[in-house]
């Protein structure tokens, strides 16, 4: 009996210790949510209506990217360069402009201290096409740049001419105000981000060749989400890494023949099984090797006791937290490499069994994975299906490394984000699920970040690359003030 009681007491002690550790960590939950007061430069006064007019004019110039390696309308990019030169005379007088890779632009505003690493601000000139037949679904014609009810409509308003125009407006305002940078400021505007990013890649190669190593690079990618799915409130998300990109071609081969006498295992059957096998074997999920854990640590103080307990005690509740997070497509994409079949083709006639069928599958690689490892994972998934092969399609991109959230440049960026975000919004790191031109500057810039101080709700995000793309004048003005304050504070 004595041994039984000893066992019970030992079990109770273990439970009490477990509860104590959980309670302590929950009470003290939270990451570096506070933003340092670094004494930012004053916010510059800007003309929001003039900025909106300039964005409207920029939208009307149809710098559309259709296919990688092909500029379908060089005249449009030449017109856009001329527009920038006419609209921003002070920028073109104070900075040197270089045309790189035919149409990409590199501006240099040389600072007084040549030894100080420069600031690099990124945006891109090109836009995606408008899906044929959807023009009538827009509130305003997609290349009209119509301004109505405080909104600027048109392809590129959000992605990414709004950011480009805001950067130019900010630089023009700084020059007009007499600011002289100590640290050099670089502006890099690629011309084909939507299809390949070769322009940005050429600019990055040029900087490397000149041994120019920016202090940090800042591109599009994340923003202020007004209804964050974890907190329900606003959160300013700074992209500190982005997923890699890989597309593969899945080929299924089998005996052909007449459709009136189909064999039991056709190419279509094998391709269908291959797609099912890929989808049934997802990549591992987790909070390792990415910014998701740090983001949750920052948000934890805004949550209830139960949520804080789970986040603060991932050592105990990790599987529960992973399961809850990956219950949505966006949450799953945050935690793992995704597999998305996007195209299927094969066959020449409705009564002929094809000997070969194909599927295109797109992967977005989590920072814990690599191109080689992902390809091996896919091949293992279909290894038991006869006649099926998987090969890379195009040139894949590795996921980016995770930039520091403890660097001086992140401290500056977080402080500037704090100044232009809602008063109660925490500043949190985030993984960018898509691809930006910033990936080409990894290894050249000390750190690479992705953020615009645009306030948006989740429902608004589908307009980017979709029908009814638009930007508010308020957001455009906010971006102008942000870029001006960030550049002046970092380069003074």
Structure, explained:
By secondary structure, the chain is of the alpha/beta class. It has two domains: 48-228 and 400-491, Aminopeptidase (3-Layer(aba) Sandwich); 241-397, Alpha-Beta Plaits (2-Layer Sandwich), CATH 3.30.70. The chain is built from 14 helices and 19 strands. A six-stranded mixed β-sheet has the order 1-2-6-3-7-17, with helices on both faces. A four-stranded mixed β-sheet has the order 16-9-8-18. A four-stranded antiparallel β-sheet has the order 12-14-10-15. Helix 2 packs across helix 5 (161-176), helix 2 (48-60) packs across helix 14 and helix 13 runs antiparallel to helix 14 (473-491). The radius of gyration is 26 Å and the shape is globular. The N and C termini lie far apart (77 Å). The model is unreliable at 8-12 (pLDDT under 50).
Brief overview, please?
This protein is α/β, with parallel strands linked by helices and about 500 residues long.
- CATH-defined fold name of the largest domain: Aminopeptidase
Assembly level? single chain
Question: How many alpha or pi helices?
Answer: 14
Classification by helices and strands: alpha/beta
CATH level-1 class of the largest domain: Alpha Beta
Counting structural domains, the number is 2
The major β-sheet equals: 6 strands, mixed
Number of strands: 19
Radius of gyration: 26 Å
